[in-house]
Amino acid sequence: MKKRKTKPPILPGNLNDPTGADRLERGAINEFGKRIRRIAKAYQDILDRIPASPAVNLRYAFDLDTSLLSMLLSNASVIVDEILFGSSETDFWFWRDYVRQGYQRGTAQEFASLSQQSPVYAAGRETLQQLLLSDTYQRRLLLVRTRVFEEMKNLSARMKSDMARILTDGMGRGQNPREIAKRLTSQTGIELSRAKRIARTEIPTALRRARWDETDDAEAQYGITTRLLHLSAFSPTTRRKHALRHGHLYTTEEVRDWYSVDGNAINCKCTQVAVLVNASGQPLNPNVVDMAKKRLEKAQKAGLIANHCDCGHHRAA
Q: Which residues contact 73 (CB under 8 A, 6 or more apart)?
């Protein structure tokens, strides 16, 4: 009887966006921009509520009332939290509309790919809906949500500190209120840059992590053996060490370890796809790996792999 040939994994449809998370990232960044502008307005409103009059040497005197300023800053702090994540640790906007969607998308991608490769997995999992409603999946979501909530709290704290510093420093130095307002507005650009990094890190990280989690569970439950095939976008800002992993196979533990150091997760567009392998770690369908390695060679010959620094500041692929 002829042995059934193992089908290949399902690869990304757009190799320039391997995770498929670009639209989610752009949506989150746009929403961050709107919310950060509202935050700047809250601190400008504080400035408007404190009387100021011209003094000597082009300085301004502010009629400061310590209790009033303290109250206004406290109110602004509440507003910042409300704008960035509201009163809920379980249903805040960035998680609900973007990161959770990324995690679900990654799960769906891996479910489809593993189902195509493994009849045992396909028979065990049956439907994606069944998987998404499982206790195992909900526990995974909890861990990701907790991580993202901490990131949002850190962003909120940093933003409050920066805005309050600009406001109080400007008044202490007797700056023109218009100059202080201008500095508050300028600060939104810095805050948005931080928010962009969070969006471009947390959303694709959630998607990748979903794939790793599902792969680990599949191995544990159904006895299949896999390796993760690393895929890079080879974009102009690709970090060299990210690009050179393209087409190589790794265990999920090796991939998790790699992303946990050196800022490798920051701004990364790479993805990994599980490939069924034999007991020796060799792919059951080697064509997909061969194709990936040929793409790496082609990118090298075309000079698409630049020797960027590996500091994590680039929009990596």
A: 46, 164, 167
The residue extents of the domains of the chain are 21-206, 225-317
Q: Say which residue the tokens 């109080």 belong to.
A: 168
d(CA 124, CA 136): 14
- Kindly report the pTM of this predicted structure: 0.92
Q: Which two tokens stand for residue 75?
A: 């109110």
Q: For residue 247, is it left (φ>0), alpha (ψ between -120 and 50) or beta?
A: left
Angle, CA of 173, 176 and 177, to the nearest 5°:
105
> Which tokens hold the place of 284?
């059951």
CA distances from 171 to 51, 174, 176, 184, 316 (A): 11, 5, 8, 12, 41
- 64-104 pLDDT per residue, tens: 888 989 999 999 999 999 999 987 888 999 999 999 999 99
